[in-house]
Every structure is written in structure tokens, then in C-alpha cells.
Amino acid sequence: MLVGFLLAAMLVPAVVAYPGRDVNALSGRYVLITPAIGAYRKPFRAFLTTRELDVMTRMGARLRAARKVPLRVVNTGVFHVEPGSGDSPLYLAQRTVLRELQRVLEKYNGTIADWRVDIVVGRSQAYLKSTLSALGCNANFSSTDGVVQMGAALCGRHYLADNLTGYLFLRSSDDILTGAMERAREPRVGNIEYLIAIRNLSGLAHEWAHIYRAAGQNGRVFTDEPAWVREGLAEIWAGIAIVNSNIARMTYTDWHVIRLRRFLDWSRRCNVKLIDFRTGSAATNGCEYFIGPLAIELLIARHGGLENLIKVFHLNDPEQGFLDDFEEVYGMTLGDFEKEADAYIAGVRQAELTR
């Protein structure tokens, strides 16, 4: 998903009024976005609320601190790459982002140093499945119609599968992988829509973030950890790595607007509250990938930065569970934060609906 973007950030003060609302409810600024990688028709404007702009500024500062990282990575994973895929531009771009994430996580005294990770990369289902099986990972893909769709952390999160074909050619959950897709030439990144190009960049990094989270828990995920936390963390870690590995042409605001604001029409499809992810509401299906990162970026920006996230990772107290770990580190309940984040996300949703 190498969508490096040059963002011309022209900030124009604005106030957006809504019928029956205080005229100052959505005070903020317009930001002009010009994607540097991927196909697009013309630059576009996005309206960011004042609160959102504050989060962007704080996230930028957090990312600058995260760039002071060790050059050497203790655990890079063991790669198994299908013949012919080793020089794939997509694979090389994903690996660059993964390397940056590994460096950032190890800066914060990661728990993954002794955690064996086999990374299987390829274009064909035959290679991906046979290699995973030969390595001892007989994963069940029934939830994805029996195929490795894109990326997945598997078998106790000791294995990472990366289907390049899925990233290159799948555009929606209704698309079906075919043999023709596996045999097709990899399109140039300049011919791929910029929204897809940026999505594709996070393939390895997103799954590595899941592995890192589980490494301190012997592959487990706390049952009381909501999906919005799980997927929000993985997507934000990947986003940080994407921005920091493309720093000459991308800011965090660029990534935020393109990946979280514009990739999916979530503002209409995902009108749910964060607590709904803890009650099993069917309406939350898939929304954790968009609402979750918005909440996590607020948590990082306003409540102790990346360091507090790592503290939660390191507690891993099975006697307490995630909810108590969160309260111990942040001094507030997860429910209290969810209410704060719901208000932030509601503002972002309104801003997105103004375009």
C-alpha cells in the first residue's frame, strides 16, 4: 500500500453551520490533500474540526519522538517468499514499513524478542497454504471462504500470511480471488487508486502489530479487549510506520485523512458507539477498522502518548484482564474514555459529512 503522499496543507479557517446547532459547534479548518502516490483526479479538501486538528498536532509530535529508534532490530521474522515475488514493488514497500514498525516497537522495550515469527509471502493460494502447512501452521480459513484474502496473523500468532494478490486486486468484501488475479502482472502503483495504494502499505505492519500485542500473552488476546481496541491499535501502529518511513512526503494528517476519513463511507455506515463493540452488536461489523483508530489516536494524543500504550502491553495481567490493566495505566475506566472518544468521533463524523 505504498501510497506516499505529499500533502499541501493549506489551512483555511472555517465554521460549518448545521440546522438547529450552535454555529460554532464545528469550528475548524479545511486541509488540502494532494496524494503523491496512487491515481487520483485532483487534490481535494477535507474539513477538520478544531479538536481533530489538535489531535493531529499532538500526533505529529508523538511521531517525531518515535523516530529516535535503534537501527538494529532484534526480531525481524523469518521470511518465506514465493519465487517471483521477492522483487514485487508492493512486497518491498510493505517490508520497508514493517521494518520501521519493528524499530519503533523495540525502542519501547518490546516483548517480542524471543517470539518466533514465520512470515509467508506470495501471490498464489497454493504456495501460501502449502508453506504454512509445511511450517506446522494448519490454519482454518473458513471465515474467509477458505482462502488467505490479504494479511493474517495465524496459529497462536507465530505466523504471518501476506497474500499480495489480494492487496493488488481485491477492492471490496464482495470481490472473489481468482486464478487470473494470481497470474496477472502487478500493476504500477501509479495506476492504483490512491486509497487502495495507502491501504496496501500496511499489510505486513498491521499483522505484526497483532503479533507484538500477543507476544507477551503467549499468543492469547484478552477476552475483555474490545475489537475497536484490537484493530485500532494495529492500524495506528501501521499508520505510524507508514508516515515515519515516508516522512519526506507524508504527514500524519495526510495518513489520517486518506486512510481513516476517506477510505470508506464509515460516517454513514458506522454510526455506533464504542461500547457497542463490547455488547456484540451486529452493526459494528467491520467498523472497528475505522472507528477504532480514531479512538486510539485520541488516546495517544491526549493521554500519555505511545509510552502508556506500551505500559498496557507490558502489564498483561491475566488476573486483571484488559479493562483493569487499562484503568491501572490511565487512571480512568475504559468506559470513561469511550465516552470521550465517542464525542471526538462524532465531531469527525459531522466534519466528514460536510464534504
Spatial extent as radius of gyration: 20 Å
Shape: globular
Low-confidence stretches: 1-24
Discrete helix count: 14
Largest sheet: 4 strands, mixed
Mean pLDDT figure: 86
> Order of SSEs, N→C?
EEEHEHEHEEHHHHHHHHHHH
> Percent range for helical residues?
40-55%
Strand tally: 7
> How does the helix and strand content classify structurally?
alpha/beta
- When the domains are counted, the total is 2
Strand content: 5-15%
What spatial order of strands do you see in the largest sheet?
4-5-7-6
Instruction: State the separation between the terminal residues, measured CA to CA.
Output: 25 Å
Please give a structural write-up.
With 355 residues, this protein is of the alpha/beta class. It folds into two domains: 12-69 and 223-353, no CATH class; 78-215, no CATH class. 46% of the residues lie in helices and 10% in strands. It is built from 14 helices and seven strands. A four-stranded mixed sheet has the order 4-5-7-6. A three-stranded antiparallel sheet has the order 1-2-3. A hairpin with a 4-residue loop joins strand 6 (151-154) and strand 7 (159-163). Helix 8 packs across helix 11 (291-302). The longest helix is centred in the last third of the chain and has 20 residues, at 334-353. The chain starts with 11 loop residues before the first strand and ends with a helix.
Keywords:
4-stranded mixed beta sheet; 14 helices; 3-stranded antiparallel beta sheet; alpha/beta; about 10% strand; about 350 residues; globular
